[in-house]
Specification:
The chain has about 180 residues and is an alpha/beta fold. It is built from eight helices and five strands; from the N terminus they run E-H-E-H-H-H-E-H-H-E-H-E-H. Helix 5 packs across helix 7.
Length: about 180
């Protein structure tokens, strides 16, 4: 099974892309736990709350991957199915460092331990869409966050692709990148 992570600043189409890719490949995707957590607990979060979010994201990932593997055991032995993840611990690292100027060691350890096959970095050229959880509509901040993610991608060893353009262009770039690894 191939694990593909979709990352980038808020409101760059990560969730939409994950959902479309999972539908295209008839696979599964791991939703972003932060959204669920913040809707339940509010947006006045602390540094410690981000550790709870990170643990929830890992738990969601393991639940979806294990459930999907169990349901498709006979098929998996013959094919490399992609599973799509809406965020990972790099997102948690950026969030912690951007807001609190430090990161939990637990998150950093998960970055080292967990293995993925491809990153899709969503660019900020998608229109920013306001919702009750989004914090950074300012283009300068969005650019800063995007470059933080890009620096991480450049300095790690998993293949990655910059995903930009309109939603159809983004989907086609992502499909081409995923097809190349499966």
């Amino acid at each position: 099974m191939k694990k593909i992570v979709v990352i980038g600043p808020e409101s760059t189409g990560k969730s939409t892309l994950c959902e479309l890719l999972a539908k295209h490949y008839q696979s599964a995707w791991v939703q972003e736990y932060a959204r669920e957590y913040l809707l339940k607990n509010g947006t006045d979060y602390t540094f410690e709350n981000l550790l709870d979010v990170a643990r929830g994201q890992i738990a969601n990932e393991e639940l979806v991957v294990d459930s999907w593997q169990f349901a498709h055991t006979s098929e998996i032995s013959n094919q490399k199915f992609p599973i799509f993840l809406d965020t990972d611990m790099y997102v948690m690292k950026v969030w912690c460092e951007f807001v609190f100027e430090k990161c939990h060691h637990w998150i950093l350890n998960r970055i080292v331990e967990r293995k993925y096959d491809l990153y899709l970095l969503c660019n900020i050229d998608a229109p920013w869409v306001k919702d009750e959880l989004r914090e950074y509509p300012d283009l300068v901040i969005r650019e800063k966050l995007y470059h933080h993610y890009k620096d991480i991608m450049v300095n790690q060893n998993v293949p990655w692709v910059d995903i930009s353009g309109n939603y159809e262009e983004r989907l086609q770039k992502a499909i081409t990148a995923v097809d190349a690894i499966i």
